[in-house]
């Protein structure tokens, strides 16, 4: 199964942003133990590349690990070397797309308008992050896909257990989830317990919808 297929099967990417290596590793463990096993480490976090390596070294194939906020080829190469299996960005870069393609690594650029989304798709992006999606809603995803249903979209921003199935029903392939899954705060037993509960709520929301099909 390819990385893209694993993301589409899991339907969720959990985003870790702003945590140092030790705290991010604790959070990644809590997510994996809760059955949430596709994780992104954002590069605008302390020692992010070291964090990617530490998480991959410990959790290995139990998770699919990506690096986020990848804006240039230097960072892309460093993250791949550290163990990242896919790369995400809030914007689209043809240079990063070509670099990742040469390395046979999935690159998920961030786009907003239908033109941006289509241009990234036409250039070879296998999945496109629709960002920021919070203010757009599921209706926007449905409208974009209506004439271009071959697109593989990852709405990110504002995703919760209450609206995740609305996005999926609209045609999204998967969702990027940040603060609704990993809230800010001191990474102690209380926060880790909260993260496990939130991860379970997201999984239960998907399972409940699956049972209705």
From TrEMBL:
Pathway: Carbohydrate acid metabolism. Belongs to the KHG/KDPG aldolase family. Keywords: Carbohydrate metabolism, Lyase. The keyword Lyase applies. Homotrimer. Pfam families: Aldolase. GO terms for molecular function: lyase activity. InterPro entries: Aldlse_KDPG_KHG, Aldolase_TIM. This is Bifunctional 4-hydroxy-2-oxoglutarate aldolase/2-dehydro-3-deoxy-phosphogluconate aldolase.
């Amino acid at each position: 199964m390819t990385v893209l297929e694993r993301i589409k099967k899991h339907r969720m990417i959990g985003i870790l942003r702003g945590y140092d290596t030790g705290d991010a590793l604790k959070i990644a463990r809590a997510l994996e133990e809760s059955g949430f096993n596709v994780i992104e480490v954002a590069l605008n976090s302390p020692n992010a590349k070291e964090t990617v390596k530490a998480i991959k070294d410990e959790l290995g194939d139990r998770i699919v690990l990506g690096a986020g906020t990848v804006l240039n080829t230097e960072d892309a190469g460093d993250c791949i070397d550290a163990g990242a299996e896919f790369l995400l960005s809030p914007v689209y870069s043809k240079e990063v797309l070509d670099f990742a393609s040469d390395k046979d690594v999935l690159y998920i650029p961030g786009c907003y308008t239908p033109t941006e989304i289509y241009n990234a798709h036409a250039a070879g992006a296998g999945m496109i992050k629709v960002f920021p999606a919070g203010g757009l809603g599921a209706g926007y995803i449905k409208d974009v896909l209506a004439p271009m249903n071959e697109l593989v979209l990852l709405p990110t921003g504002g995703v919760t257990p209450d609206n995740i199935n609305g996005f999926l029903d609209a045609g999204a392939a998967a969702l990027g989830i940040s603060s609704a899954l990993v809230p800010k705060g001191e990474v102690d037993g209380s926060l880790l317990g909260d993260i496990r509960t939130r991860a379970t709520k997201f999984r239960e929301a998907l399972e409940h919808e699956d049972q209705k099909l």
